[in-house]
Amino acid sequence: MKALVWHGTTDIRCDSVPDPEIEHPRDAIIKVTSCAICGSDLHLYDHFMPGMKSGDIMGHESMGEVVEVGSEAKGKLKVGDRVVIPFTIICGECDQCKRGNFSVCERTNRNGHIAAKAFGHSTAGLFGYTHLTGGYPGGQAEYLRVPFADATHIKVPDGISDEKLLFLSDIFPTGWQAAVQCDIQPTDTVAIWGAGPVGQMAIRSAVLLGARQVIAIDRIPERLAMAAAGGAITINFDEESVIERLNELTNGKGPEKCIDSVGMEAHAAGTIDAMYDRVKQATMMETDRPHVLREMAYVCRPAGTLSIPGVYGGLLDKIPFGAIMNKGLTIRTGQTHVNRWTDDLLRRIEEGQIDPSFVITHTVGLEEGPEMYKIFRDKQDGCIKVVLKP
Amino acid sequence: MRYETERTRRRGHADTATDTLARGLGLFSIALGIAEIAAPRALARALGMKGQEGLIAGYGLREIATGVGILASKDPTPWIWGRVAGDGLDLATLATALEGDNPNKHNVGIAMAAVAGVTALDVYCAQTLSRESPHPLPPLQDYSDRTGYPRGIEQSRGAARDFEVPRDFRTPEALRPYTQPDLPQNPMPSM
User: Fold this and answer.
1) Is residue A166 domain-shared with residue A176, that is, in the same domain?
2) Closest CA to A225 of B159, B5, B46
3) Do A355 and B149 touch (CB under 8 A)?
4) In this structure, what CATH number is given to the domain that contains residue A92?
5) How many domains is chain A built from?
6) Does A282 touch chain B (CB under 8 A)?
7) pLDDT digits over A146-170, tens only?
8) pLDDT in tens, A316-363
9) Residues A125 and A110 reside in one and the same domain
10) How many angstroms separate the CA of residue B111 from the nearest CA in chain A?
């Protein structure tokens, strides 16, 4: 089959690789009908996340049709089922899964001992996202083996396009969880750093959940235009001071809720801390560039909440914990517990509350995937979200 | 990579290779500057330029300032040209050490060759950046109709208020009065 394969930093190729096979009775194989490139894939493309090996298949946002089912998954899945595959692989049986904390499933990371060394404890296995999270082949391919398939799937009905459903795999529940973590009240101002795909979903989620005011911070004109279309007030951080503008929009009090949809590769320029991060990262003295975290901690209203869906990988420097402690901020973060939200979100799509396909700007074949990584990474051609059709 | 706004000339510029080179030169500038400030005597001795330690440290300050300018600015082009000018100054200064009976002329020659190599990189980078600058701005894609709300935005505000936030995702009870002004306030505990 064809698949997008990681070979090294900024080196992703469309290769011919062996078709996946059932390896365990709980497995299933799906024929991928649509998949997408996620912003967090760029951390692998740029090799900021450790744990990739040449030959790894990329991708964790996929959907398709079940073509083969292992004997122990047959009660829950059958050939022909239409499914979206969540990016977190879940067993559905461990203590964390029973609590709905699917992204920290205790059993699906087959390299859990490595993750435990890095993070203290293992987290869930993820598709196509380093050997720290299991080294499972990803779904930017014609076929995908789904481990623990009896639990790791979202059945979706016919009659709704792939484009409306695909993002149940990651960015829609991720944006939703980011907003839910804010416990949004009708009086709240929600400020969202990063108007990429997750940021766009977080904006819509915050609007649907009834925030008084939603503010999006970015610098790319197309992203800001899309954020404004979703009901956000926009701040271009290249043209105005984020902190001054946020205080102005909140009568000097700061936003109650702040969402970091940027993560480890903040592109702020012209600030001392951004330059400091660049130098430290270039000299391998820091893994992440946490400019957004610093700004959020500084500007957030006392007793407010910092919600962090943005991906961080390692050790962060110069985090103003004094501000966090003295202002009594609540920090909520984590990978998304996808299946916890998807029944509800699927209903909202079916009822027409939201159509997540608004975010798609490019649809191409799998062969064009490597080029699209570069275009997406460099934000060329107005690229915000790429869907691949194997 | 840079995503320039309407105010800068390089919006839409996508030559990440040149930008990476510029950033590398910025980091190199800072590293060289630190070395010149930290060890001016050793450098002066190696180059047979005793008595010029103050000048070397001064050049170190210039290198650091240029490096910071490259890394911190939205458009590094003028700063890279600044490096080219600095390279010229370095070469001229080193050339003075070739005169007379300097026993370390060999080291000076090596240093000049190294500076000439970096100068070539600086000139290439500055010329490439300058050529890219006047490119016409690419047209913006229009996403102003991409609301994502099939029923329209006004109908959608608060449409999901029926969602019950799970207990483990709620704001800690103790902080609620501070963030929800409409809630009936609990009486303040006596201090």
Assistant:
1) no
2) B5
3) yes
4) 3.90.180.10
5) 2
6) yes
7) 999 999 999 999 999 999 999 999 9
8) 889 999 999 999 999 999 999 999 999 999 999 999 999 999 999 999
9) yes
10) 24
